[in-house]
Amino acid sequence: MERVYLDLKARIISGQYPPGTRLDPTQLAKTLDASATPVRDALHRLSGERIVESWHQEGFRQPSLAEADLCDLYGWGGLLLSHALKGRTPHPMTGGLFELPGHAGYMEAVESLFRTIAIGAQNRELRYALIANIERSQIFRAAEARIDPASRELLAAMEEDYRFGRWTGLRSKITSFHRRRVAQAGRIVAELKPRTEPLR
Q1: Fewer CB within 10 Å, N side or C side of the chain?
Q2: The pTM is what?
Q3: 95 vs 137, residue with greater confidence
């Protein structure tokens, strides 16, 4: 079941299924080389994490997010990250330099930075909330990069602040980053829609 859960989760947050796609356990079982029961269990677990939607007697589907939903998710993510950095001071033994895994791609790099901040949060509930927000937001990252050419540059500036422990500057950049994403939410939602679906 854990293999099926992790595989299915990776497919969903990578954007393999367009918004609104019905997720049928029997069909998914064939592609995941598993029986329908662990697939259904995984879908229930992902529904609890709000990565997929479940409706009584209607099964499961990839969420169909509206612009307002995306604005709320971005706003919540910015608040959580800012709170995780509040009051943080460089450890005296680090000399002000913090390690951060290097990633060339925007999608991987933004997840790495935000997840690193989340793991460093002192409050366990804050860590859980941040990780959940990061995973639910991952599906938008490719669309962000497509509609905003400055995405990697903005992220590089945040990465540099993190490496040198410039927490005040990083909090400010994270707030600006998420406000920028809120302003772009309508374009990001449109970018995620299947091309056969009319844009509204």
Answers
A1: C
A2: 0.83
A3: 137
